[in-house]
Amino acid sequence: MKLILVSKSPRRREILRRFNFKFEVIEPSYTESILDEPVNTVRNNAISKVKSISDKKAGVYVGVDTIVYVDGIILGKPNSAQDAIRMLKLLSGKWHSVYSGLYLYDNISKKDYFEAVKSEVLFDELSDDEIRWYVSTGEPLDKAGGYGVQGLAALFIKEIKGCYYNIVGFPLNALYRGLKKLGYDPFVFMSSK
């Protein structure tokens, strides 16, 4: 049985490789959208990514979506440097939530599994100069909420509650649990090296 990641994210590929998962990648033909609230948004996007693949090989398909939620506002990926600055100003000095939706679909058994994972992150108070410097690195431009916890933004993160890998954008524990719920030994999808 194959694990098939439906994603354009290099970080999700990197995480699966780091943990010795054997997998293929198919890029989705779905464009992410923001809905009325965090869980509905990540559920819709994760499921829609998998459903956007028309020619399905035998395997377990994995769709993931991650958003940031602060002050009642859902933040996806910034669409410009100015948008990243706006997002970082919203996050400065505050706790915010990071939600990921993980969807698994086994196209042999037709079983599926969805889980939403929530983590909390506290940012230091950021000056305008710090925000401009960070945005000038280019790092925020393809990341939900305009920052990458695994990169330079770690300089600004004071505290984390919950799953670190969820904040990076791939809740590994949810994947492990979901594969078991579908009836698989997760280690079957991993190499021994």
Would you write up a description of this structure?
The structure is a single chain. With 193 residues, this protein is α/β, with parallel strands linked by helices. It has one domain: Maf protein. Helices cover 30% and strands 26% of the residues. It has six helices and seven strands; from the N terminus they run E-H-E-H-E-E-H-E-E-H-E-H-H. A hairpin with a 5-residue loop joins strand 5 and strand 6 (112-123). It starts with a strand and ends in a 12-residue tail after the last helix. The model has no long low-confidence stretch (mean pLDDT 94).
Q: β content, as a range?
A: 25-35%
Q: Which spans of ≥5 residues are poorly predicted at pLDDT below 50?
A: none
Q: In sequence order, what are the helices and strands, one letter per element?
A: EHEHEEHEEHEHH
CATH class descriptor name: Alpha Beta
Write the layout of secondary structure elements.
Elements: E1 3-6, H1 10-18, E2 23-26, H2 38-51, E3 60-70, E4 73-75, H3 81-91, E5 95-106, E6 112-123, H4 128-136, E7 157-161, H5 164-168, H6 172-181
Parallel strand pairs: 1-2, 1-3
Antiparallel strand pairs: 3-4, 3-5, 5-6, 6-7
Helix pairs in contact: 3-4
Highlighted features:
193 residues; alpha/beta; Maf protein; seven-stranded mixed sheet; 6 helices; 7 strands; 30% helix
Task: Put the structure in a nutshell.
By secondary structure, this protein is an alpha/beta fold.
